[in-house]
Amino acid sequence: MQIRIIAVGKVKENWQKEGIADLIRRLSPYATITITEVPDQKYSSAGEQPSAIRKEGASLLAAAKDPALFIALDPAGRMMPSETFAALLRNHEISGRGDIAFCIGGADGLSEEVRARADLILSLSEMTFTHTMARLLLLEQVYRGFRIIRGEPYHR
After folding, report:
1. To pair with 149 at 20 to 30 A between CA atoms, which of 26, 46, 103, 141?
2. In whole angstroms, how far apart are CA 147 and each of 9, 79, 140?
3. Which residues bind S-adenosyl-L-methionine (predicted)?
């Protein structure tokens, strides 16, 4: 299975980079993981924020191309237990429909265009995380999901 993560901005903290690399390595028996970073848009006044979000959204959609399943991460999205998320991964894997693209917006969130394109808007938690932490948390949940699917120890 091909899983793509398309995210605004770069991961700057070494510990986050190391955690992401470790999870990608752990996921290699289950899926091919690629991460595409699109630039975050700087703005100098609050009035420029909507335009910056739209530009980031356009970059995210262009990088996503046309995945079989497009999931946008947003704090206002649908929350689900790890077992339900694992079932989503399993059902998509069994369907053989192709790749999954996860989209992570920048500090100011996702554009309406990205939300409209998403097959699912997913929330990792009611808590707020940085967009770089969201990558790490998402990868951990994907890893947990595959371990659940395979009945392998990890999830408790």
Report:
1. 103
2. 29, 20, 11
3. 73, 105, 124-129
Average pLDDT over residues 92-112: 92
Whether residue 37 is annotated as binding a ligand: the answer is no
Q: Is 125 annotated as a binding-site member?
A: yes
Phi, psi of 103 (to 5 degrees): -115, 125
Whether the predicted model's global pTM rises above the 0.90 cut = yes
Q: Is position 32 annotated in a ligand binding site? A: no
Tens digits of per-residue pLDDT, 22-37? 999 999 999 999 999 9
Domain carrying residue 23: 2-150
Cα atoms found within 13 Å of the Cα of residue 10, Cβ hemisphere only? 4
Judge whether 80 is annotated as a binding position.
Answer: no
pLDDT of 155 above 80? no
Q: What is the CATH number of the domain that holds 74?
A: 3.40.1280.10
What is the C-alpha separation between 34 and 24, in angstroms, rounded?
A: 9
9 among annotated binding-site residues:
no
